[in-house]
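Exercise 7. Given the components listed, write out the predicted structure of the assembled complex. Treat all entries as one system.
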Amino acid sequence: MTQAHEAAADQIGERAMTKYVYDFEEGSREMRNLLGGKGSGLAEMTRQLGSDVVPAGFVVTTEACVEYMRAGDEPPELEGEVTAALARLETKIGRKFGDPADPLLLSVRSGARESMPGMMDTVLNLGLTDESVLGLAGVTGNERFAWDSYRRFVQMFSNVVHGVPTERLEGEIARIKRERGVALDTELDVAALKELTAAFKAHFRTLTGEDFPQDPGMQLHQAMLAVFGSWGGARAIAYRRINQIPDDWGTAVNVQQMVFGNRGAHSCSGVAFSRDEVTGAPTPSGDFLINAQGEDVVSGVRNTSELSELAEVMPESYERLVEIMRKLERIYGDMQDTEFTIEEGRLYMLQTRNAKRPAQAAVRFAVDAVAEGLLDKAKAILTIDAAKLDALLHPTFDRNAKFEVLARGVAASPGAAKGTIVLSAPAAQKAAEAGEAVILVRPFTEAEDVAGFFAARGILTSEGGKASHAALVARGMGRPCVCGASALRIDLDEGTITVNGTVLRAGDQIAINGSTGEITTDDVTLVRPEIDENFQTVLGWADELRTLGVRANADVPADARRAHEFGAEGIGLCRTEHMFMAEDRQPKMRGMIMADTVEERRAWLEKLLPLQQADFEGLFEAMEGQKVAIRLLDPPLHEFLPSELELLEELRQVANTHPERMDGIHKELARVRQLSETNPMLGTRGCRLGILHPEIYETQVRAIMRAVKAVGKRTGKAPHCEVMIPLVGFTGELRRSRELVLATAASEGMEHGRDYVIGTMIELPRACAIADTLAKDVEFFSFGTNDLTQTTLGFSRDDIEGAIIPQYITDRIVTVSPFETIDTVGVGMLVRMAVEKGRAGNPSIELGICGEHGGDPKSIAFFNEVGLDYVSCSPFRVPIARVAAAQAAAQQAPSA
Amino acid sequence: MTQAHEAAADQIGERAMTKYVYDFEEGSREMRNLLGGKGSGLAEMTRQLGSDVVPAGFVVTTEACVEYMRAGDEPPELEGEVTAALARLETKIGRKFGDPADPLLLSVRSGARESMPGMMDTVLNLGLTDESVLGLAGVTGNERFAWDSYRRFVQMFSNVVHGVPTERLEGEIARIKRERGVALDTELDVAALKELTAAFKAHFRTLTGEDFPQDPGMQLHQAMLAVFGSWGGARAIAYRRINQIPDDWGTAVNVQQMVFGNRGAHSCSGVAFSRDEVTGAPTPSGDFLINAQGEDVVSGVRNTSELSELAEVMPESYERLVEIMRKLERIYGDMQDTEFTIEEGRLYMLQTRNAKRPAQAAVRFAVDAVAEGLLDKAKAILTIDAAKLDALLHPTFDRNAKFEVLARGVAASPGAAKGTIVLSAPAAQKAAEAGEAVILVRPFTEAEDVAGFFAARGILTSEGGKASHAALVARGMGRPCVCGASALRIDLDEGTITVNGTVLRAGDQIAINGSTGEITTDDVTLVRPEIDENFQTVLGWADELRTLGVRANADVPADARRAHEFGAEGIGLCRTEHMFMAEDRQPKMRGMIMADTVEERRAWLEKLLPLQQADFEGLFEAMEGQKVAIRLLDPPLHEFLPSELELLEELRQVANTHPERMDGIHKELARVRQLSETNPMLGTRGCRLGILHPEIYETQVRAIMRAVKAVGKRTGKAPHCEVMIPLVGFTGELRRSRELVLATAASEGMEHGRDYVIGTMIELPRACAIADTLAKDVEFFSFGTNDLTQTTLGFSRDDIEGAIIPQYITDRIVTVSPFETIDTVGVGMLVRMAVEKGRAGNPSIELGICGEHGGDPKSIAFFNEVGLDYVSCSPFRVPIARVAAAQAAAQQAPSA
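Answer.
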């Protein structure tokens, strides 16, 4: 991301004469980057389904937006191109834009490469004026429709183009409904709609100081610039930040002839998925509203009908819709998410895109698509967002748990979550920063709540369905979500949630199950799920397709067993220090560090040896002969001692009560001070420790070798043991450490090459520079990309992640934390260099990576590309890594 | 060093059939690497002066030694080659090795590429046995000479080949002299010498369990292997470590016909320099001893005569010696350090090498050599060891100081030093580690004291002259040294130094002046000297020859003025934080950091602004229009606050006395904790600080710009101002910082490009990787090789330099601290990459380096090679850098 971003930044605005406007007929789905997702979808549908299904229109390109942002003004050619496109549109339709008698009305919608909820979305019915609303009433013979359309236009234009607050506008609607004593918008009559329109215009005037524009050309121009401007809005930026979308993509503007779902009982607007958007089951799903425009459906304000009901009320249109969606699935090779409108019995398609879906549905679709012959395995696996598979391994309610269901809602995004209630996005963010698990509870959500989604474990709303903003965003992020739990009465002013007489408040415990819609205040146990059959199928394909090995990082036998179950092909990193941290071992470890002489240190180490040996035996047994890479002690010794402050405090406490203990504490204090480091990350750790205190590494190697022998003898299957030397920067460090391993192992009767191999971590820039020389002395490299990132970027993770990275993301200096996705520019360059040099120095060397990047799909794609042999990640990310590795292989392979 | 070392390590021992033995006639001075310094010198002298001046002999090559070390045994071909060479030698001389009647005697001497005092040096008179000593007595008619030679041989062979301790052997000599009532060795008669020989042999038997070998062939073989073995001895390793000599060079063995300086009053041995070895004045100097062998001269045990006296006692030989040395100077193009023996009136040359000499002498020689037409300027400047020029800028006694001279000795190595007395090398090392300035005081010094030289500020001995071990090593290291201060009675057992009734002890203050030989216990002021005329001449040539610019790192006007005087061509680094550390500014800086709001912070910054501005004005004025690079604030803010422990202590103290102050301290404590970092080196510092708190950089830029204006106005000469942004790793960091500089400067009416330029530090591996992109946004790069070394090697200087680097040097993992001389393999690779990318991105970019490596001659050679435009170093190293830069240019230029 960063790479492309930085490279591209200088090229923008350096091209010659550009075409900024494309009619739908001129585009295709391949032109997504130029026309945006929505525009390219409309173009493709126009080509494939014909212009009788897709209302005519044109797209103003993303490049026009980029140029607008760069120059601070629209490109000079743009106005002429738009005018010409509009003229062509008028000719096609046979109506004039701005014709007071029979106006051509337009929808203006934004559309970036990727759908972005944070951006200005839609203005409908554009072109209506005080005069042409009368013409529309006349020509349609439907005065209520005309005024409903006009009030909607004035409302949307005021809000999204000029920022008149939603609350004021919705407040007017609520007031009029209250005054007229009606419950639904559809019950408002012409007079009410006229009053409403006038009220909206008054708000417009108050806020802008101008009258509502009566020139359709000006309306279009303002709307277009507003779409451009919304790309740079705070919410869009926040969304891009979370979703790692570059700032320089820009958005397109889609201008399209209006069709009307609000022309009465035979009209409707809806969203439809080609398959169930939650489960992936091959049944179309979605929501629609009779006599409504699209905004009513997605806003979640009115409760929608299930798509299945459309089969009953408009069976022909329903069949047609299903048939179109099947066709679109074949065209796109993916599950589709569409928008449609039925105007007086006639079906129009307004959008199609690959459906965002939870992991469960993604996996199901992939399996079904192969079974149906829609896709081959490689293409099918590429439809899955590997990063989201996490959700399938995330907790659900324990099947055997007994709990009282407080209420039920729509199961909108699968997985379960529990935490304390927060009632606003900022509160969620604050609590998350404090490390609290929270559930964000809202009546409904809007774009400005997105950051709160990110911070929360789960989302619960009282309004809206599966297509509501809350549901869409939660699924996009892999957060559990229950929507439309209408039993909840949420009073944000009072800060209360009332459910059948129970009153909950912020800070109370709550749990939701986004797979079932259940809500409870009981402290229900969450469990990690088994891998289901579909997921197993996909993982099986992944293993066929991928060339990259997948191992796990595991320090204790329990983790190793879990990793083995999840399909890890070995352990890529066992951190031996975690064994020393165990409570029963800490005193021995402290004794070792406090030792005054090498002899005394050896005596303590002798006590630790059998404990380590037992740990290693457990690991070897769990992995049943697979490779197990054990890293010799890495952290600085002071990590095992209490801090200076703690000891000073202890000293103060015992001064009066146990003066006899003061000597010991003083001694420990002196050692702590002696060992304390200014920058421990760059201090006496890794192989430096082993060179300073060879007896420590010697003991560890002895424990490893004895464990290898014991397990081989006990199980009859020799473990595959890899001894790994950390933090090497000089050939001399490696050679000295290697000699110690060889000598110690030999003294235990173990033979290098037969009983074990030796490798080194590559985690310093200098190690990358001398990788050719290092490679000659080892059987494998394991890239420690956490530390390599810290040194290459000069970023101490502990100090930078909280303070600097978020600021840098806000300031667009980075698009994602380099500790999450590998920095391909800096760190990646060094990895690439080390791979080339390493193979040059030792063609048979095995190359792996055991940093946290090993479980990140984007990083895995990079590791696959540079030609590593395996990645190693936490046990729970092993399935994700298997799929990501397969995707990387599928993407690199020449397409079939 | 490290680079060559690592690359070479794998190639050793992979060559085909090798010739291991060369007669002197077969060699030349070009074969130094193969034959060693001594061997190639003997070969060259044989070719140039004829075999009547150089006793015949042969050299066993350094490759034989390397092979011996590698295989643990001598190469199989070696024995045959030695036998053949010996046979040729016998033929030439007409005597047989081991002939009991008229034995051919040999000297066996080690000789690496570079002279190494730490190694086994010499065995003389080899070939004598109980039988042939009688033959020698017969054939020379000089029984005393024969027995003196034999006792010397037994003594040396026992000591250097078999490790019989010097004390025991010298103890026997002392006993016999005491018993016989004589003062000098030369006064011992034949009976005494026979008794001494027998006593030595008894010690030999006690220690080795064997009789002293009576087979000359075995004597030669054992001596040869002992030379090989001494290369791997602890003292040789220590010496190599200090002098950065690779371990894999090996040593040659020189086997040469004996000539005898101990054949009576017309014989002598001596060392002679072609010019004064202390001052460089064009008068030959040296020491000699009548009726002695070479070892007597260099051991410093007997007080020698000045070479000038030789002109009186043996005028012909003296003239011949002077003539030969002149010839050798022409051959080698350098001042020579020779060994000679006069045997019964006939002069033999036994060694020649370029003279190690103090900076003063080196500079004088270079100037004279050009005046004499011996060398051109480029060649002359290359004869200077730039690193040692430091001594010329090191302290001397203040000319106006009044002090009482305690005693006088030989002015053996120039410069003055003061410190507390230590009486052993280990004590010197220990004190130095504790940061204490010490003077090492010894009766005389030996090879095992070398590490103590390194640790001490100066060396004082009561015995020996200018050619003594102490004098040689001190000059080699650039340490002030006074030798042979015979008024000092040093009792090591008592730990006292008695001088005319005054008793000094370890820990007492002492000062020595190695340029005058003065010793005092007064606290005399040391002053830095002026640059003398010769040095000025050399610096003038340096400026003609060099292409690399030389700037200085200076934070305050006084340093800037000093830098300007020393010839700096600008300031390459002004660290603005040092200005904030000044006592009057700390409260303001603290206030700024403690500020709760940006407004409050700005208010404090406003107070700091005029102070910084005044500092900058001082710098600009001192540099008179030369370039001044000012780095914006770099260190983390917590460096300006007290530590948590200090505040806790303060809290405890005020709790009862000033409870009203507790709130303030608590607040400060909270801020300290908030700002505290695990690895501050990799934390919130550099441009990260400026991005988090733009108001800080803004204030600094404002102060800089106002200073530029003020000085321009006041002096009529516009400063050349360079604003430098530290710790950049991302293009976004640079752009954001740059924009802040541009905007702030513009608001002060200053124009980028006209009034100032902008650059960035390159001090992170990632910055090197994106140097092409970074280069587009700046006018200059300044490599911060301190930080780049820390990140590339993962070495926190604070934590590693004390604990790890010394161990690594001992373990031969590195040959020198990478903070002293740049690590060309890792850090150098990144610098090279950044230079290439930087120039590719911006061909007109200016490239400099401002780390401490900027004052290190070896590093300067590297920077010259990679094509930097300038180096910047501390003001006192500017003259060194000018010379080193000239040398680098001279070495790179095609030879004339």
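Discussion: Residues 5 and 11 of chain B are 10 Å apart (CA to CA). The first helix of chain B runs from residue 2 to 9.
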